[in-house]
Amino acid sequence: MTETESQFQQKAAMVHAMMIVCYNRKQITSQQLATVESYARSLPEFYGSDFQRYYAAAKALASSAAGDLRKAIGFLSIIESDELRLKTYYCCLELSLSGTDGRVAAQDEEVLTHIQTSLGISGDLASKLQSSIAVKYRPTPSHSISDMVGMAV
Fold first, then answer.
1. How many angstroms from the chain centroid is the CA of residue 142?
2. H-state helical runs in 24-137
3. d(CA 75, CA 119)
4. Quick one: CA dihedral 66, 57, 14, 21, positive or negative?
5. Residues 106-147: tens digit of each pLDDT
6. What is the largest CA-CA distance in the chain?
7. If we measure between CA atoms, which residue out of 95, 109, 3, 94 comes closest to residue 57?
8. How far, in Å, are 135, 139, 153 from residue 143 at the CA level?
9. pTM for the complete prediction?
10. Span 64-111, pLDDT tens digits
11. CA 94 to each of CA 15, 31, 150: distance values in angstroms, whole numbers, following the listed order
């Protein structure tokens, strides 16, 4: 199936959103870019695609925002599909929560709120997604052998 220009731009905007979350910390490291690429490649929308094309288009979006975060986030409104909007927000949350103890860093809260609004994700859904993803990053309490034996009884 051939991708239309609109479909290409929407997927590039998705990559752009993930880059915003990474850049919010003032730089995108090669490790973060690899993570963005990994997330994108795990989605069916990007199977068999040349990620570098989407990345180049996402960088062009970022450049045209000229450092204006609200303008950069505003570009996400081109994502028409509700499913792609949801996946975009999910990936942004995942990136924001990775490397934390399951809580969104203060510096990411405002950006995520603007991304959520731009993508039209309800506050209730955003909260449920965040709670679900946070479970993955919370430390698991360690138990002693005696605690575990007591739990087995």
1. 30
2. 30-42, 51-65, 69-74, 82-97, 106-119, 123-137
3. 10
4. negative
5. 778 899 999 999 999 999 999 999 988 888 887 777 655 555
6. 63
7. 3
8. 18, 12, 15
9. 0.84
10. 998 888 999 999 999 999 999 999 999 999 888 877 777 787 778 899
11. 13, 15, 35
The DSSP code for 139 is P
Length, in residues, of the chain = 153
Place of tokens 């599909």: 81
The torsion region of residue 79 among left (phi > 0), alpha (psi -120 to 50) and beta comes to: beta
Instruction: Output DSSP code: residue 44.
Output: G
Q: Does domain 5-138 have CATH number 1.10.3680?
A: yes
With tokens 């996946």, the residue in question is 87
Token pair 């034996």 is found at 149
- Taking the C-alpha atoms of residue 44 and residue 5, their distance in angstroms, rounded to an integer, is 18
